[in-house]
Amino acid sequence: MTEIQERPLPTAVESFVLHWGDLGSHWGVNRSIAQMHALLYLAEGPMTAEAIAAELGIARSNVSNSLKELLAWKLVRRVPVRGDRRDHYEAETDPWEIARCIAEGRKAREIDPALDALQACAAAARDDPTVNDVARRRLADMASFVESLNTWYDQMLTLPNATLLGLIRMGARVSRILGRSG
After folding, report:
1. Displacement of CA 120 from its chain's centroid (Å)
2. Which end of the chain is less crowded, N or C, counting CB atoms within 10 A of the terminal residue's CB?
3. What is the value of pTM for the model shown?
4. What are 12-34's pLDDT values in tens digits?
5. At what angle do helices 31-42 and 11-26 cross, to 10 degrees?
6. How far apart are CA 108 and CA 105, in angstroms?
């Protein structure tokens, strides 16, 4: 069995963990969940829930619930450790995969239901003679806009990381070109 070593986190690691926790709370993610993700992301190897609780000074029950959330987002996975029957966890370390997991999770939880609601509202407005033309057009425009973003997102998921990075780096050049021609 691996013993939990209590030692202070290096300043850079602690700073990142605290900052990531603050960012998480701004993004609607519980601070503890974001801090656990940051700790696991920077960890040299898999960690037990007990070790996470000790490092961050948070309750073991909070760690368990937070790990379930991180597992659901696919940002963390359980990994076996030879000679230890406890569950160990490690974070996804590829920034592109982290971004994909977060984007997929947010899309499923936020964009997909919003798109369904917009499409239903636009369809109901189309068939309701009591809805004025302005409201009908604006609902259709908003639904069309979100459908376009959804299609773009699906297309971006199929591109290799190198291509996505190239598109990101092209951003300023494309803006300059469009600005000159528009």
Report:
1. 27
2. C
3. 0.79
4. 999 999 999 999 888 888 999 99
5. 140
6. 5
